[in-house]
Design a protein that fits this description.
The chain is mostly helical. It has helices spanning about 35-60, 65-85, 90-105, 115-155. Helix 1 (about 35-60) runs antiparallel to helix 4 and helix 3 packs antiparallel against helix 4 (about 115-155). Keywords: Membrane, Transmembrane, Transmembrane helix. This is DUF4233 domain-containing protein. InterPro entries: DUF4233.
């Protein structure tokens, strides 16, 4: 049989012999993160890889001038990454929408890959719309749940900001 040393038991844990301990103050909920931003940034990140590898394929087919391939391939991949980084503001969503249109338009620049690139561009455009709409719907539901959790936390003695009731570790009220 092994015994647990008292130093291994945290101070807030109840004493097994008496069942008493210092009560833990419930933590206030954290604000929800945006599902739309998560979905759209994931899609743009994956799209950056697809654009880069499509450029490598076009280069291998020698379908278009190398300068055009480099400009469209590397520029498109970097634009996807830039748009994913800008999703904190509405500009990122506008740039992402513009990129979806450009990806469909690029299909007509490379005739040997037209059918494949058009299919890929249309799939990404449809996924962009799905990410935008479903993500926005999830964000609304998360905000409603956050408001309810915050009201519950405030009703149970927390101020809803840092998970405490305003008193310090020693019981003094902080200014």
């Amino acid at each position: 049989m092994s015994t647990i040393s008292q130093s291994a038991v945290p101070e807030s844990a109840p004493d097994p012999s008496t069942g008493q301990g210092s009560p833990e103050v419930p933590a206030a909920p954290k604000p929800p993160r945006s599902a739309r931003r998560l979905f759209c940034s994931t899609l743009l990140g994956l799209e950056a890889f697809v654009v880069f590898f499509a450029a490598l394929t076009a280069y291998g087919l020698r379908a278009v001038d190398t300068g055009v391939i480099l400009g469209v391939g590397i520029g498109g991949a970097l634009a996807c990454i830039l748009a994913a980084g800008l999703l904190r503001s509405f500009v990122g969503y506008l740039l992402g929408t513009f990129i979806q249109g450009c990806l469909v338009a690029v299909a007509f620049l490379v005739p040997p890959m037209r059918d494949h690139m058009l299919a890929v561009g249309l799939v990404f455009a449809v996924l962009w719309v799905i990410c935008w709409r479903v993500g926005a719907r999830i964000d609304v539901e998360r905000e409603e749940r956050y408001a309810a959790e915050l009201a519950h936390a405030r009703a149970n003695g927390t101020d809803g900001t840092d998970g405490t009731d305003g008193s310090g570790a020693d019981g003094r009220v902080e200014p």
